Amino acid sequence: LHDALPISHAPKMEWLVDFIDIKEIFNATNCKYNKPMYSMFNRFLRDAGVTTSNSLEPLAEIMFEKGLEDESVWGLMFSNLAYAPQVGWLVDNIDFNVKYTQSEIKDMLSSFITTKTGPGNVAKSYGNMAELPISNVGFGSIIKKSKTSFEYIRTSWKNPDPRVILYSLYRFAESCGRYYQFTLSRLYNYEIDSDGISPTRIFGIEQEQMEQILNGLSVNYPEFINVSFTLNLNNITLRSDKTSADVLALFK
Prior knowledge:
By secondary structure, this protein is mainly alpha-helical. Helix content is 45%, strand content 9%. It has helices spanning 13-22, 35-47, 58-66, 71-81, 85-93, 102-109, 118-129, 162-175, 184-187, 199-203, 207-220, 244-248; strands spanning 99-101, 141-145, 150-153, 181-183, 225-228, 235-238. It is globular and about 55 Å long.
């Protein structure tokens, strides 16, 4: 985890609103915030797949078009943020439907972050981020808060956009070395050491709902995915000539 960037993943809502207004990467001339603030925000946007170091990505255009009220925008960003160290730790270590206090999260982080202030800063950043709409798509939300602490719980994305799940599946496959054919049970096996992160783990989707989503994707987007849930087989096949970037075109 990045001790030196303890709040790189905790943007403020007004920063996102301003980003949509200017439709440019924040810099010293177009940003009303100080340099550390826009540096942290730009880091967040890169990790979320919205920008690169010097340009806007297709996800930025989706954000500009759909706005910040659209859960699919937050789902796409969460799909990417899960591969960044701080949010990836949360996805891997914080269970769904379990209440955690800020202190408990800080104690858990202390096994991974060795600096004195790092665990507390990262735990605080989770609390800040949980007050954004990303809380609705599996990140988790604040259920109790005081001036010095909070209580937090991860809940699943209730009505996931199937296209976001498709995007997350491609991210999973690409991160696993172009692993385009796998089983549904593989997506629920979290004991496997893998660079790819299953969308079921990111969004908290139960197996029955995931089967429905996959079947729907297979019908509606056969050029991207084929599934077979017959005779005790649960095979998922993604098209090797498609990419996660191609999936983003489905949102336009």
